[in-house]
Specification:
By secondary structure, the protein is α+β, with helices and mostly antiparallel strands. It has helices spanning about 50-60, 125-140, 155-165, 170-180, and strands at about 5-15, 20-25, 35-45, 70-75, 90-95, 110, 185-190, 200-205.
């Protein structure tokens, strides 16, 4: 007899809200782990592909239908004791987006990742893996702009890097690096004074997917 193992999809959805890196979570109201924060997730359907399941969970369970979320597969978690009820394999997806609205589901909540010190199941481990993936992708890809609105300043982008990486960056060095990275930022004809001072140029995300040169965290700013 071939053993059957349920497969679920769990979402690590990250955004920047109120100058903090936040994850979309809900507080469990039933065993196991009653009262603990958990990621949104759900079991895949027999006729459903994994990316389709992730999109469905994002819309139905996370309560973000139609939201401009960048979704990518993060990792598979399958060790035997991750769920005390039964053996469950989870395929985690990482979602990144700019300042997202509140979820349409009343039980879902945006929480600063620094507050999520205890979570249900292995969800804290999954969340931390997602955060590290996001931090690494900001080094080598243009995904940092996915946290920004369609038009943004270099200072807006720098704040994203500072919040996700968890450390301050030198403004001049950062400006030089992002504007010299091929195809990362495209200037618009617009400016803004929302931060005060002189008008700042507005940019939009360019066509580059990989950054050349990269924005390495190991480099001193």
């Amino acid at each position: 007899m071939v053993p059957t193992v349920p497969v679920s999809v769990d979402l690590v959805v990250l955004t920047v809200r109120s100058q903090a890196l936040c994850a979309l979570v809900w507080r469990r109201d039933h065993p196991p782990y009653t009262g603990c924060w958990a990621l949104s997730g759900g079991f895949i359907k027999l006729d459903e592909d994994l990316p389709a399941a992730a999109e469905r969970v994002l819309a139905e369970r996370a309560g973000l239908p139609g939201a401009p979320v960048h979704l990518e597969q993060l990792q598979t978690y399958g060790y035997p004791d991750r769920d005390p009820r039964e053996r469950v394999v989870s395929v985690a997806y990482l979602g990144l987006a700019p300042d997202l609205p509140a979820s349409t589901e009343a039980h879902m909540s945006w929480r600063a990742v620094a507050e999520l010190t205890e979570m249900a199941f292995d969800h804290r481990r999954i969340m931390l893996d997602g955060i590290e993936r996001a931090r690494a992708k900001l080094e080598y890809t243009s995904l940092g702009a996915a946290f920004c609105p369609p038009e943004f300043t270099v200072a807006d982008l720098r704040r994203v890097y500072e919040i996700v990486w968890g450390r301050p960056l030198d403004p001049r060095n950062f400006h030089r690096k992002v504007t010299k990275a091929e195809g990362f930022l495209l200037p618009t004809s617009h400016t803004t004074t929302r931060d005060g001072g002189r008008p700042a140029k507005l940019y939009r995300r360019g066509p580059a997917e990989l950054l050349h040169p990269p924005m390495l965290r190991s480099l001193k700013e």
